[in-house]
Design goal:
This protein has about 220 residues and is an alpha/beta fold. Helix content is about 30%, strand content about 20%. The chain has 5 helices and 8 strands, in the order H-E-E-E-H-E-E-E-H-E-E-H-H. Strands 1, 2, 3, 4, 5, 6, 7 and 8 form an 8-stranded mixed β-sheet that branches. Helix 2 packs parallel to helix 5. It starts with 5 loop residues before the first helix and ends with a helix.
Length: about 220
């Protein structure tokens, strides 16, 4: 696991933003954030990007990078972050890798997928963002959320993801959904199963965009 204090995170974001057109997402996870369009600020609040003329049919394998969480809400335990990361990791393998072979080696017909869950979004006051990379997350919680603060946090979680060429690093598809949590309206009585379903939707949107361009 890796945690980055706020000052280090912001410094990294500023440094990288200077090298990328359009700056970074509020969480600092996605670069060239202004490249995404089509929905941010609307009731749906889903922003997407597809590289014009991208040939996605040539790809037959995918590298799935470890899920990242970037959390600014105070008091959210590593166990909760791991729970969300495990849901996202599982969704990636079921939704995206079902069409492609999972690999760990870059190549000319291999994609790379980066994803994150975050509560750091535009115009939202937050505490100190902590970035955590989850190499092998496990979902150990069951039943209901049982906590009002955790339910409020879950209700504010957003999805960020992109699909890149594994050799050049060029972005082919990207998607941000700032309404994942708001659509769930989680409460202490909400089940973790329901949270899993909500997290899955971000991956479904990214996959659907990819498959539409791929022509399937």
């Amino acid at each position: 696991m890796q945690a980055i204090p706020r000052l280090a995170l912001l410094a990294t974001a500023v440094a990288l933003a200077s090298c990328a057109t359009g700056g970074r997402s509020p969480s600092g996870f996605l670069s060239n954030y202004q490249q995404l369009d089509g929905g941010y600020g609307t009731a749906d609040a889903v922003s997407t990007f597809v590289k014009p003329g991208a040939d996605l049919k040539k790809y037959d394998s995918v590298i799935i990078e470890p899920v990242t969480t970037i959390v600014a809400t105070p008091g959210i335990s590593l166990e909760v972050k791991e729970q969300l990361a495990a849901y996202l990791s599982d969704a990636l393998r079921r939704q995206i890798a079902g069409e492609l072979r999972i690999t760990s080696a870059p190549g000319p017909t291999t994609l790379r997928v980066r994803t994150a869950l975050t509560d750091v979004i535009e115009d939202q006051k937050a505490g100190t963002p902590v970035m955590t990379i989850h190499p092998s997350p496990s979902a150990s919680l069951s039943g209901s959320i049982g906590s009002a603060p955790v339910a409020a946090f879950v209700s504010n979680v957003s999805f960020e993801g992109e699909i890149l060429d594994s050799v050049s690093g060029e972005r082919l598809v990207a998607s941000v959904d700032h309404r994942l949590g708001a659509k769930r309206e989680a409460s202490p009585q909400t089940s973790w199963t329901g949270v899993r379903s909500g997290v899955n939707q971000g991956v479904v949107r990214l996959r659907d965009r990819f498959m539409a361009v791929r022509g399937r």
